Each structure stands twice: as C-alpha cells, then as structure tokens.
Amino acid sequence: MKTETFSKGARVVFLFLCLSLSFSSSSSTPLLNQDFTQSAATRTLKQVKEDVHEIHCSRERSRGAWTIIQEYLMPFVEKEQYRISTRCRLHPDNDVYRDQEQHKFHKDTNEWKCGYCKKKFYEEKYLDRHFDNRHYNLLNESHGRCLADLCGALHCDLVLDIVQRKTKCNSAAAARNKHLCESLAHSCFPVNEGPSAGRLHELFLRQFCDAHTCTGNQKPFSRGHRKQISIPYLAISILTLLLLPLVYLFVYLYQRGIKRGSQELRRISLSGRKKKSY
Length: 278
Hints:
Blueprint: H1 2-51, H2 59-72, H3 74-80, H4 98-102, E1 104-108, E2 111-114, E3 120-121, H5 124-134, H6 151-154, H7 156-160, H8 171-188, H9 195-209, H10 231-276
Helix pairs in contact: 8-9
C-alpha cells in the first residue's frame, strides 16, 4: 500500500516537473524570437545606413558657384582666348558634380531626364537624389573638387538669393574670403604667363575680390556678365524679320497702285478737255 502511494506521489511530482519545464520553454521562446527579430532589424538598419552614400559637398552651392563662373568669368576668359589650367580650382574638371550636371536634361517644365539611365523625374531635386543614390560611383571625390568650398570667394549667396539684408558685416569673414579670392587669382591667372593672364588676373581681383570688405561701396561683378538672350525677345526678333519684307512689299504695291490711279485720272482729265474744245 505504501509502495502504491509512493508511486502515485512520484507520478504527480513527475507531471509537475514536466509542466513547469514546458511552461518555461514556451515563455522563453517568444523572448528568443524577439531577440532574433531585433538583431535582424538592427542588421538591416545597419546595412541600409551603410548603403547610403554621403558626399560632404553641397550640390546646390556647387551649382551656384558654377553659374557664377560661367556668367561672370568665362566671357572674359573666352574673349582673351585663355586656357585655364587644370591646376586651377575653377576648371570644370575640378567640379565633383560636373559630369552628372552634364547628364541632366530639362525636357519640359515638369520633366527632368537622367542622361545615364534615361529615367524621368518631375522636379530637379528628385533627379539630384537619384544621382546621389544610383550614380554616385561616377563621382571623383578627390581633394579640392568641391566648388561649394569656393562660394565665399565667389559671392554665391548673391546668386542663391540667401543674403540676409541689413546684417552687420563680419570683418574676419570678409578677410578670409578675400584671401581665398586672391589665391584663386594667383593660381588661375599667373601674371608671369603673359599679357592675357595678367589682364584676367586684374579683372578677377576687380570682379570678385575687391567686394570682400566692410568699408567702401565696392560691389561684386562690377565688370558685368554674359548677356543672355531671352526666348520671348528672340521670338519677337525672328517674327519681326519675317514680317518686315511683307511690310515693304505692301508699301511698294500700295505706292504703285496710287501712281497708277493718278496716271489714269490724268488721262481721263486730258481726254475730257480734248472733247470740250471745238
């Protein structure tokens, strides 16, 4: 009897141990799954972060600097028939975004096209993101190829229209920008390379560098810029040239008709006079 009671007690203890073990294992499984899910999510997030390619050079300010170079410097360089050296930081090869910008096509008001893969976008900013994400491997990110670093010397804020008016001039910043501007003039247009380089050196100082001061009324781009012909003006000019011959033809025919009419009136008057005379 005692043996039977002992066996029943052992069975109860055994069942209790099995239930406790199964409960502990079932409660630990979600924790393990949760840890695994969290680790997988962490790895995925880390991988996404590693796939994002960051370039520490402002595309917008680089674009502004290139606009200034094209409009306020290159017309004078072309007039002098001077060839800028690749050592000059203003050279097109020293713009990290130049190749991408040349593969950007503005087809219509809301249509921008990638020249690499022919993909279309509604706005330019989306095309810029596309370049950053898909075609960043085409960029040459060597040192000294960020035109945005020259914005202080080239007055990019005026072109980008982000100048805060009625702001107190910072003499230290003006001195730094002037020093950078003068170094560009010396490296890009060395005076010992001939008369053309000397004239461009002087022009660069007047066009860009003299305005970096907190005294006086010097303004940047004092030598002017490239003259741009607007599309409406061009259309009106072409239409005027086409209509001008027609106007001359109309005037010619009109004057010829008046002469013929006067001659016929003369003949009629002369014939009338002859009939009245006996």
